[in-house]
Amino acid sequence: MRAILALTLLSLSAPALGQAYQCVLPQRVAPLPPVRPDGPSLRTRVAGYTLAVSWSPEYCRQDRDPASVQCSGRNGRFGFILHGLWPESTSGPAPQWCALQPRPAPETVRQNLCTTPVPRLIEHEWAKHGSCMATTPEAYWGVARHVFARFRWPDADRLSLEKGLTVGRLREAVALANPGLPRSAIGVVTGERGWLRELRLCHNAQYRPAPCRRDRWGPGDGASLRIWRGF
To answer: pTM here?
Structure first.
């Protein structure tokens, strides 16, 4: 696994961007308190990965924090953003909380904010998920950005205007934007009343798309879907 991570990092030259309508990095990031584990440490064998991609407008319609990088509008407006890359087990609970150190350097946090515009999430995802697949936050986020950058995202703002929109129509749009991506690898997460929250793109241990486990698949194709527009 370390060999795969090393080869992936060699191909990285600059941070990838999320689906940002526009993005300006802040000059500095204020120090953050350490994360607190929300569950036990589990060191199970990594059998695959889930790329979690959030639909930012859905979160921001409820976030009124004027200091928010993601939602205040001061640093940009965002569409699909990188939530994290999660190692998965063959069955049962996924590996998690393998280490809390080292913590991400402030510059590491800052440089990832156009992809994952939530400072506290950058450390949380490293500690909960990344520490079970990489030795440093920089290595983890380098691989996560690289996997994220391989995908193209559909115009969810336009999709939101379609009458009778379904989860299957969204899966179709994601597959069309990414030739060769099987629909079985596209999980969808919805919230109350069917509002889109996230995509879950499932991979095998070699970072190739693979069918999602049932707990990552989400609603069936016929389920109705609503999308909160970014504009």
So the answer is: 0.89
